[in-house]
Amino acid sequence: MRPLIGISCCVKPFGIFNTPNHAASDSYVKVVMGPVGGIPALVPCAGPECVNEIVARMDGIIMTGSRSNVWPEYYGGPPHLEGTPEDHQRDATTLPLIRAAIDNGIPLLAICRGMQELNVALGGSLDQRIQDLDGRMDHSTPSDQHIPLVRTGKAHNVRLKPNTLLARLSGRESIAVNSLHNQGVQRLAPGLVAEAWAPDGTVEAVRVEGARAFAMGVQWHPEYDWERDELSLSIFQVFAEACQARMEEREGRKLQAAE
Q1: Domain 4-128+182-258, what fold?
Q2: Choice among 9, 10, 45, 112 that is catalytic
Q3: Is 230 a catalytic residue?
């Protein structure tokens, strides 16, 4: 039996009528079926009323990246600039989903927007356009975004906090990562610990202090290069171990209840 892994969806227009669809990128499905060794389950933006039942059935959750930005009202930020993509249905689902996953000991891997959601869900705030701030880098999608290896290639180095999971997995003090975001951590949420930083000080990785299960976020996209990047692969392997343990625990409780 393989663990059931929830993949957070966005609401996106589809087809000639721009019909709203709940969608997640194929890269997340492939990584769940690949190194995670699980069964992917797309989690629609169904609202907070479904969160507890979703969590009860999952052995792990991946919070995905997206072009949309977290709605500023959730962290007391200024309104987005005109034209900034938002996804209110996603926010209304993912923020309580993150809190429920952590509270219930469900392994959680938050990627890009997912890491930003993790920070907001636990009480932190965001910078909306890092590239507009003095002394900061442009972390957004490269101009040659239609060339896949340019879009997802390594963009800058990240300094790792010593004796953390990423430092142990990589065996290095810094690593190279891709970079495809505008938002970033402004005020770190209570309960989150920063474990990696870009050269301009942007927080690039966090973990949930005292979490019952694996719970971390990375600002880059390891799902893009796990087939050729050893650290990206290792992140998903550690997440997979946590999900397998969760599944075995859940199945054990079911057997005990049936006896």
Answers
A1: Rossmann fold (3.40.50)
A2: 112
A3: no
